[in-house]
Amino acid sequence: MTRVVLIRPGSTDYDEQDRIQGTLDIPLNAHGAEEATQTAEGLREAAISRIFSCPGASSNETARVIGKTLGIRVRKLDKLQNLNQGLWQGLQVDEVRRKHPKVYRQWCESPTTVCPPSGETVVDAYERVARVMKPLLKRHRDEVIGLVIPEPLASVIRCYLRGIDLKLVWESGGADCRWEVVELADEQAKSSGPAPSPPPGTQST
Fold it and tell me: What global pTM score does this model have?
């Protein structure tokens, strides 16, 4: 059985300030470095054979700590960058909520219908995830692989792996854990994951 361990990177200053990070390249802070070390120790029994990291300092630093602790080589997946949240990036969540209450509420309640200004939609991110994950799962079938992925992209990947409707992306769970294990059924592994088109949560035209 193929298992994917979704691993959240350690904390950054932006996390602690409740700022939207998106694709901004923010390194781990002191607390985040400690979290990365704790995560690595906690994963010793997970039987991970390979570690992959999305672009970004916090993910790369966390992946390197895990790889060194477990004696596993780390590979960066350049096309698996975090969700691009455009002009919202760098702003505190409360600032977006106050300045754009209707759009922010729609983003929370109906995420497939909103695109942050100059950013990308959740649907676009899902399709990008599918293009990366399909060959990756096929190549590493019946292995345990670790993915160091920040939110909100981790939730999009979770939807892809579990076949959850994208409309429920923020309700899919797992955001509060340092890592979670997703087991793929044999049928999923053989087909390299759920069909990437059309994404769940969208309507065909």
Answer: 0.88
- Buried-state track 76-91, b at ≥16 Cβ within 10 A, e below 16: ebeebbbbbbeebbeb
The pLDDT tens digits of the residues spanning 167-179 come to 999 986 655 568 9
What is residue 188's predicted lDDT score, i.e. its pLDDT?
54
| Rounded distance between C-alpha atoms, residue 139 and residue 120, angstroms | 28
Type of residue at 113: T
Ranges in the chain, pLDDT < 70:
172-177, 186-205
CA 198 to chain centre: 20
Structural Rg of the chain based on CA atoms = 17
DSSP 41-102: HHTTTS---EEEE-SSHHHHHHHHHHHHHHT--EEE-TT-PPP--GGGTTSBHHHHHHHSHH
CA torsion through residues 169, 29, 118, 102, sign: positive
One-letter amino acid at 81 equals Q
